[in-house]
Amino acid sequence: MKINFVIPCLLGLEKLIADEMKELGAENVVSENGRVLFSGDEHILARANICSRYAERIQILVGTFEALSFEELFQGTKSLPWEQWIGSYDAFPVKGYSLNSALFSVSDCQSIIKKAVVERLKSKYGISWFEETGPVHQIQFSIMKNKVSLLLDTSGYGLHKRGYRLESNGAPMKETLAASLCNLARLRPYHTLYDPMCGSGTILIEGAMMVNNMAPGVNRNFTAERWDQIDESIWLTERERARSLKTTDSQFVAYGSDIDEKSLEVAMANAKRAGVEKFITFEKRDIRDFRKKSEKGTVICNPPYGERLLDLKQAEDLYKTMGKCFNQERGWAYNVISPSEDFEAFFGRKADKRRKLYNGMIKCQLYMYFK
Fold this sequence. Notes:
Helix 3 (70-78) packs parallel to helix 4 and helix 5 (175-184) packs across helix 6. The longest helix is centred in the N-terminal third of the chain and has 20 residues, at 106-125. The protein is elongated. It has ten helices and 14 strands. It has a seven-stranded mixed beta sheet with strand order 2-3-1-4-7-6-5. A seven-stranded mixed beta sheet has the order 10-9-8-11-12-14-13, covered by helices on one side. The relative contact order is 0.12. The protein is of the alpha/beta class. The protein folds into two domains: 3-153, VC0802-like; 175-212 and 249-369, Rossmann fold.
């Protein structure tokens, strides 16, 4: 069955996610501001959930239409084939948002969409009451400039929840963003990766998983696995496929350091749960004592800053220290994510490339030095 999908994504990651979906075998891949659209079958649904490093969740696009009134919203929703996905016992809660649209009351939209789906399913199943005791089929709506998109979430917990990070430091970076940084830094299996402010180790772990082709979602569950509409064998097949692609002869090496001993303990435990502990060496070390342990290296780090852990003056002093430690040298690349527009001034030199990204809700730049 051909299915249309949507991946909502942080601004700046659209192309990266679109390229990933193409590599996974998706069809009709299109990237737009804040989302990526594609199509495929049930295998692509499972594969995208299990294998995507950068997407936050995979949603089925049930349909789109324009609505300027609640009657149009009701009729447009009712006309869609909800019975393809929602059984007579399944739960189907509704949530969403509306922006720059005539229908601005989210709670009213929520109740009208719910009522319309119920009316559609009543006519298809010939019943008047839905127990909703079965698997959850979360309906998500977005109304932007009067265009309604109705979706079903297949992931459940966000895909950044790989399962290895049970605890973290004070301001953890999402696993999906950490993986994105590794991609943008062009990390390769023959590189030596460094994170001298590693916190709970997320960048190092995601880097090790990426270069060894370890599927990030292979050991977790997804809400669509409980749906009767998708055969269990599809999930088994896709997990076997993902595991078969894992690299077994990697020479990859990574080094992580931090001044906080508790963070290092957490990082080591996380790396072990992720199955990458043999690739990463952790040690307690201040950034001022940063040491290169290889002829060439790729540094990727997410330093604490004013809006996260340090006050502004401390953050600026840290950037100056980094500029001294991360000296220009052939074969070395430095990648630092920061919200500071003045980072380059304190670091001491202009970046060779800058990339706009969001760390949570904080607008940042990825400052890249590789020349």
